[in-house]
Amino acid sequence: MQKFFHQPERYFLSHSVGCQLKTLPDFMQKSYLDPWANAGGNAWPAWLDTLNLFRSELATYLGAVQSDICPQTNVSSALTKVLYSLPARSHRKTILLSPNDFPTIGFALKQAEKFGYKLRFIKGDITDINNWHDAMDDNVQLVHITHAISNTSQLLPVKNICKIAKDMQVFSVVDIAQSVGIVPINLTHWKADFCIGTSVKFLCGGPGACFLYVNPDIIERCEPVDVGWFSHENPFEMDIHNFKFAADALRFWGGTPSPAPFTSALHSLQFWQTPKHNNAPEIAQTHLNQLSKTIPDTVLISPRDASKRGGTLVVSPQKRQPLRSALTAQNIMHDERQEGFRFSIHAYTPQDDVDLLASIFKSVF
Q1: Which of 93, 153, 160, 230 has most Cβ atoms within 10 angstroms of its Cβ?
Q2: Which CATH class is domain 2-21+279-364?
Q3: Is the sign of the CA dihedral 230, 236, 237, 238 positive or negative?
């Protein structure tokens, strides 16, 4: 797998940015730059074909259909569009989320307080479905669920939380930014109302190619506020007095799209969906199992059980400096947060790098 990617040595940061495919420049030249050079303003038909192919490939990858997928610039914007598209329900003014969500989620949802909403954070163990059940009541309008927690690599029981939300008539949105590309996902299985994610991490598609899934069962109830001509049912009608929402998820699109990021993301999606390359989750979890065996329970933060874990290993020794020094000496590319040191594994992570990291853990812990 390593031969297909530009990969820095001893790279354990795919949870931040996935590595670039070596074939990407040729694909970008053919699919993005050549139409621009050869057709100028008439490049749009080719670019829109690429955007539609991205939607189609992503839908297949996630167990959805193309009409349920809308390209987005980033996760924060997608979440904001979701929130302000929901039908008003005067008694439902609470937004439910976890204190372990990525900070951008809290920043985006906090702004809703200007419109009468209030935030409610899950208390206790966020992997315990009972805590989600106890926090869900008739006042909740929207529940935000992170599939893989970025700082602990815990997987939340998404399907069960969505089931509670549906029973309580609460809208659900699932954040798969840290799981898509490294954990198998089937959106139809979850029955979430919305799903938001990015191509920049384990999908290796680069920044700027994010996405929003909208459950077709609720699409007609959603009227986004942040719209543009590509939210219109016919963007090229060119009648300023006539706006009608697109019939599918594209009503969440907005103004003029940026084809370049989605060209890059399309190429990576096509790579991961070929039969000989679609086993990334299995390879990653095998390596993570190997590493977990070298770490005592008092140090390991991420789950030891592969079925409850994302693609990242998190460790937090009581004394951190010895591990910092050992990692620096071996030029291990990783990051460190309050919760611990984070090391992500991908299918392209060399076995020698995994073995080296395991030896460091054995020597320090």
Answers
A1: 153
A2: alpha beta
A3: positive
